[in-house]
Amino acid sequence: MTTTDPSPTGVTHHRTCPLCEATCGLELTVRDGRVARIRGDRDNPFSRGYLCPKGSVLQHLHADPDRLRRPLIRRGQDPATATYEEVSWPEAFAEVERRLVPVLERHGRDAVAVYLGNPSAHTLSGILYNRVLVRALGTRNVFSASTVDQMPKHVSCGLLFGGPLLIPVPDLDRTDHLLMLGANPLESNGSLCTAPDFPGRLRAIRARGGRVVVVDPRRTRTAEEADEHVAVRPGTDAHLLCAMAQVLVTEGLAAPGRLAAFTTGLEDVGAAVAAFTPEAVAPFCGVDAGTIRRLARDLAAAPTAAVYGRIGTHTTAFGTLAAWAVDLLNVLTGNLDRPGGAMFPTPAHERLRPPGPGRGYRTGRHRSRVRGYPEVNGELPVATLADEIETPGEGRVRALVTVAGNPVVSTPDAGRLDAALASLECMVSVDIYRNETTRHAHVILPPPSALERSECHLAFFGLSVRNYVSWSPPVFEPTGPGEHEIIARLALIASGQGASADPGTIDELLVAGVLGPAVADPDSPVGGRPVDELAAALWGPTAPDRLVDAMVRLGPYGDGFGARPDGLTLERVAASPHGIDLGPLTPRLPDLLRTPSATIELLPAAIVADLGRARAALAEGPREGLVLVGRRHLRSNNSWMHNLTQLVKGRPRCTLQVHPDDAAAAGLRDGDRAEVRSRAGAVVVPVEVTDAVRPGVVSLPHGWGHGQPGTALAVAAAHAGVNSNLLTDGDALDPLSGNAVLNGIPVTVTPV
Ligand SMILES: Nc1nc2c(c(=O)[nH]1)N[C@H]1C(S)=C(S)[C@@H](COP(=O)(O)OP(=O)(O)OC[C@H]3O[C@@H](n4cnc5c(=O)[nH]c(N)nc54)[C@H](O)[C@@H]3O)O[C@H]1N2
Ligand SMILES: Nc1nc2c(c(=O)[nH]1)N[C@H]1C(S)=C(S)[C@@H](COP(=O)(O)OP(=O)(O)OC[C@H]3O[C@@H](n4cnc5c(=O)[nH]c(N)nc54)[C@H](O)[C@@H]3O)O[C@H]1N2
Ligand code: SF4
Ligand SMILES: [Mo]
Fold first, then answer.
1. Is the CB–ligand 3 distance for residue 295 below 6 Å?
2. What tens digit of pLDDT does each residue of 727-736 get?
3. Which CA distances in Å does 549 have to 540, 553, 571?
4. How far apart are CA 648 and CA 61, in angstroms?
5. Domain co-membership, 161 together with 244
6. Domain coverage including residue 115
7. Ligand 2 mean position, distance from CA 58 (Å)
8. Exposed, middle or buried by CB within 10 Å (0-12, 13-18, 19+), for 554?
9. What is the pLDDT of residue 1?
10. For the CA of 48, the nearest ligand
């Protein structure tokens, strides 16, 4: 452990914060078995001491009396009257087996659905073990938070570059010009772009003479700090970006440079976006044609520039098209894969592969039973989970396993899903809280707290603005099984091996899955060596750590199990408690491309077809009436950090922001209560009149709506707010990705 400064002053530990994608370095002081203080780690080369209010209260999350320490079994069907009984771990797994196996036997594999939530991306268990559970369940009914989030980016990158994880990130520290759409990193600290102290990095762009442009229907804190704010109409970014591409092509400003040698479709871009003239899209986007033209010219004129779109662009009806158009502009301006542009990281655990064509990215290998939605990345849209539970027939979902998810708050048409969950024959939740979702579970299995596990953010090393690696051991001994062990046991139960089978067999399988292909590859530094010998050499306190060691040693900076003696091992990473800076991002194309042509396929057929849908929407014109968008607050984290007094104190934050003109038209004043109604449902909320929202747009944050019967979140219940996803519509999806439309929801607002 990273121990200095022995008592009485305390013991210092260093680790990264697990709460958001920024992965800031933390310095924790532990005294008398308790965390006495958390500060930003000033010696962390990546975060340099930065942290936000959430990172500094991790000890309160750890100490939260409502955080579950032991498994619970629910007695009684109705959460309002049910009791939840603490049981031993063996009893809990036996109960899972007793409930789950009969469903599988009677109704088949597809009768069990699984939902994987956001914190799964922040744990080694989530990254390395969840897929074992998914495979063991053998169900097509796989759902995750990805389809209320970033799935459009996976699809567009799959089509453009040949892999859903080949996601370029804006090179924040070197760019001269950042065009940012649908992102508010001053509250969110960034997403699909790991950059601790995102705010500071943005300020640095301007300090060095660069320019930051923010496109957002709200004048956010990020927009306030930018050089320019463009208040776009919700759901129209794809059109805006296509119009910018149209300008670049017609004004002869397209200059892809070295990218042209390995890009196909360039010559057809002009025709593909011809209909999206600035004049045609201006009324649709609510941005005047002159501004659109200038945005395009500024982008082209900048020495280096990066276009970056995030959740506001993805959770719309044209999410994939917007995600694609972001990288279309990066390609057309020659900014993809060059310093200061949008670049591909080189994570320490990357699996090395020789360059060459891939099989191509496909979706729709199967379809959802009720609505016929295409599979994407092995998943179905979570917006259709309630359909699959409610609709009778062969393959109906009768059991659900949730891992680190709160879909009753986080997914569209939440009221309907809430009711559907209550009807399940079996529900098992791996979660640290009894909340709006897990109150429906027959068994809740709580993993250790974030301070009781190793911390290593594999998912975000591949999305970082600098190449960086870090790993830290647990601060406290876990009091129950690790999350990976819980998941492994569930997988063993699902595959018929029973509640008392040895989870170590799963660990071995995973290690063999990493080492096996390497020893079989004659070009690998370990080619021909016995797997057992390498496996025996792995380092780390738990099985997932040893798996990471294998990946790092075989990775781009790795020691190749001795072949490159100066290379990285996890043990060496652990010896650097502040993490290791592996340098700025470097150009990686064309070698990284995995499309069938081994080029950037700029105009995939699916995109060309969807441009037709975008043209049709343009022809219909903007719709009348108010639309709802979301927002984030620095002291929230989706739905699950509202149980910490430190984060919810102060003015209530779950308010409906309304522009003064719209408030006047509706007869609403600041502080009034209003009913917000959509096709899906209605909520009553306090109104906050502010010109920070564009006229025609109202904003309500997601993640609230606590205090439901059967939940055990005392602080959150006292700051309940309303669930904004009672308003979002389960039928509204981006057809290419299956991502839910969470922004731009038609609503009416009336005083109550
Ligand atoms: N309207 C609207 N809806 C949205 C969004 C929006 O912008 N607007 N944003 C969407 C986005 S981006 C996301 S990512 C989703 C999030 O959707 P979800 O992932 O479904 O929801 P979270 O609120 O993140 O819930 C996380 C759950 O994990 C539990 N948890 C925390 N730590 C751990 C852990 O270490 N292990 C385990 N097993 N459980 C843990 C928490 O108690 C909580 O129950 O919400 C989406 N929903
Ligand atoms: N404090 C805090 N940090 C978080 C989270 C949190 O809940 N709280 N959640 C984490 C998660 S899971 C994620 S995915 C990230 C998300 O990180 P971001 O993508 O930065 O998400 P937001 O802060 O919600 O910013 C989205 C912005 O999009 C705007 N918007 C809405 N509709 C549109 C539109 O149609 N077009 C455009 N251009 N803009 C639109 C909204 O007004 C909002 O300002 O944040 C992460 N970090
Ligand atoms: S910005 Fe994110 S990673 Fe950094 S301290 Fe805050 S929650 Fe943690
Ligand atoms: Mo997210």
1. no
2. 999 999 999 9
3. 7, 6, 8
4. 13
5. yes
6. 65-139+380-461+471-502
7. 22
8. buried
9. 45
10. 3
